[in-house]
Amino acid sequence: MAINDRTAQEPPPFLGTRPGRRAQAIQRLQIGGLGLGVILLVIGVANVVMDRAQEVEQTAVPEAKLNTPAPEETQASDPLADIGVVPSPEPTTPTPEPTSTAGDAPKAPPAL
């Protein structure tokens, strides 16, 4: 009979013996439910935004698009070569020098 007296005085083991354990479980459930609700709300808003974007895309007037001419192909220039800081990557054709006459002194070869 001592066993029956003991169970009548103590709470059952599945409810727990620490105070506030049930309150913590309820709070965790509330936070989890709130988190799921926020996620569903964000997904819903994203879905509405995507639907509106597709609707606007389908109803847009094709003539309203900006018609820009195709860019003309120009040779790519090197800004540093243009201002003379580095040599140009493009081969340059040498300018022909005039032929020397008998009275002219011979010219030194160009420096590299």
Describe the overall structure.
The chain starts with a helix and ends in a 30-residue tail after the last helix. The model has no long low-confidence stretch (mean pLDDT 76). It has a domain at 22-58. By secondary structure, it is mostly helical. Helices cover 46% and strands 0% of the residues.
- Rg is 43 Å
Shape summary: elongated
Query: How many strands?
Result: 0
- Summed up, the helix count is 3
Descriptive labels:
112 residues, mainly alpha, 3 helices, 0% strand, elongated
Topology:
Layout: H1 2-9, H2 21-59, H3 79-82
Q: Could you give a quick summary of the protein structure above?
A:
The protein is mainly alpha-helical. The chain has three helices and no strands. The protein has a domain at 22-58.
